[in-house]
Amino acid sequence: MIKVGIIGVGTVGTSVAEILRDNADVISARAGVDIVVKSGVVKNLQKDRGLDIIITDNVDDILDDSEIDIVVELMGGVDEPFAVVKKALESGKAVVTANKALLAYHRYELQDIAKDIAFEYEASVAGGIPIISALRDGLSANHIESIVGIMNGTCNYMMTKMTDEGVAYDAILKESQELGYAEADPSFDVGGFDAAHKLLILASIAYGIDAKPEDILIEGIDKVSQDDIAFAKEFGYALKLLCIAKKDANEVELRVHAALINKDEMIAKIDGVMNAISVVGDKVGETLYYGPGAGGDATASAVVANIIDIARSGKSTPMLGFNRPMEGNKLTLKPTANIESKYYLRINVSDKAGVLAKITKIFEENSISVATMLQRPVDENSANLLIATHIAREENIQNMITILTDLDFVNSTPVMIRIV
Ligand SMILES: NC(=O)c1ccc[n+]([C@@H]2O[C@H](COP(=O)([O-])OP(=O)(O)OC[C@H]3O[C@@H](n4cnc5c(N)ncnc54)[C@H](OP(=O)(O)O)[C@@H]3O)[C@@H](O)[C@H]2O)c1
Question: Which DSSP helix (H) or strand (E) runs through 290?
């Protein structure tokens, strides 16, 4: 019999215990051994969890329990779970986590500590979608050309509502909070950080890239307005918060931002809270993964799959998928300044003669070529210029935005959205 200890019996932890109890028949048949939850740890002992397990408020009750084979970390945060997981691995216990923030910062340190001890984290990216095992195992024969994903259900729900129903950003954010999709402090989701944590995990498995959130381009959806949605619709785009990893020779670009995507692309059709990830391998071509990215049961489904795997073999494949560094073609992170993309800009200008000519001159001086331009009046004195560019360098766009912002006839910092 395999005994499990769950540190953090909240939304996901409770579902893990329930699945192991409710689906014990199929789980023990698949694992070849019975798996039971012995104990769980919470902060608030007064709250009834509805589970027939030992509940304590001291993590050491699990970490020091020699009967526990697998520690499941579902407490959230970074520093506390790092200490917990480190201690568990050092005492020879296998670990399963769903904690993307922990992995975004500490995955390589934890890999070094884990060595041959199983350390699994399928639920940390896109909840119930088995994208980690797809990348680490199913696609391991491929050089990965690109990963493009919708990996934050809250943002995707908000963008879908803004597009389909014309709801304003602030109103849909409030509704998402009421529905429990967005946290009271939503900046982690709408600022793109949650999605970035997931992208960094996938980048390690696909490319062996050791980057932290502060090393990559992360932007959220908080600047998107109905003007941008109208532009997207008029020119045949969908607007999504995308996670992008793209290999270019020996460099990999990693970025998270709102993006305009051709509405005929499969990923453009992913609506609501669902997640989807497109992975292109050099041999397999494009593969697409779709499913629930969050929710207690969906996330716990992936956690329990990891527990079953460990119960079957006692060992995991190397935690981040590489048994040794790649020889020769070592990949490095592309500097953000060198990223190339098409761009859309919304520039609010005073409606005066000569403004358009001055703006187009500034584009030219920054080596940015305009593909389409629309002018939309805002009131008697100002108008929005909606401009799509041809391929340009990120550095040039950023410089140009700084120049434009300082002009007296530009009324606010221009909004920029990349076109993918
Ligand atoms: N929810 C999802 O859909 C989802 C999806 C993918 C990944 N994840 C990840 O899964 C993890 C858990 O998420 P969740 O939504 O289940 O969180 P949650 O509902 O807030 O549960 C956290 C649990 O940890 C306990 N806890 C927190 N700090 C503790 C401490 N210092 N000592 C003891 N217990 C402590 C809490 O105790 P109390 O109950 O007493 O407060 C609670 O039971 C997070 O890393 C999250 O990012 C969640």
Answer: strand 285-292
Retrieve residue 215's tokens.
């090393």
386: which strand partners?
346, 374
For ligand 1, atom 44, name the residue with the nearest CA.
76
Give CA separation, 314 vs 28, 32, 34, 119, 319, in Å.
Answer: 15, 12, 14, 10, 13
Q: Determine whether 240 is an active site residue.
A: no
**Structure token pair of residue 344:** 């859309």
Query: Distance from the CA of 209 to the center of ligand 1, in angstroms?
Result: 28
Place of tokens 């919470």: 42
Q: How far is the CA of 394 from the centre of ligand 1 (A)?
A: 38
The residue type of 207 is Y
- Please, where are the H alpha helices in 242-349? 296-313
Amino acid at 371: A
**Residue minimizing CA distance to atom 4 of ligand 1:** 294
Query: How does DSSP assign 9-26, residue by residue?
Result: -SHHHHHHHHHHHHTHHH
Query: CA–CA distance from 133 to each of 111, 317, 320 (Å)?
Result: 16, 10, 10
> What digits encode the pLDDT tens for the residues 254-292?
999 999 999 999 999 999 999 999 999 999 999 999 999
Taking residues 317-342, what's their average pLDDT?
90
Give the whole-number percent of the chain exceeding pLDDT 70.
99
Could you give the CA distance from residue 59 to residue 68 in angstroms, rounded to a whole number? 12
As given in the structure block, the two tokens for residue 186 are 């939503």
Cβ-in-10-Å burial (0-12, 13-18, 19+) of 300 comes to buried
**Secondary structure letter of residue 335 according to DSSP:** P
Question: Ligand 1 centroid vs 301 CA: distance in angstroms?
Answer: 16
Beta-carbon contacts of 353 under 8 Å, excluding residues fewer than 6 positions away, are none
Measured from the Cβ of residue 39, the count of other Cβ atoms closer than 10 Å reads 19
Catalytic residue among 198, 246, 247, 334: 198
Residue 235: band (very low, low, confident or very high) from pLDDT cuts 50, 70, 90: confident
* Block residue for tokens 């769950």: 6
In this predicted structure, what is the pLDDT of residue 313? 82
Distance from C-alpha of 135 to C-alpha of 202, rounded to nearest angstrom: 8
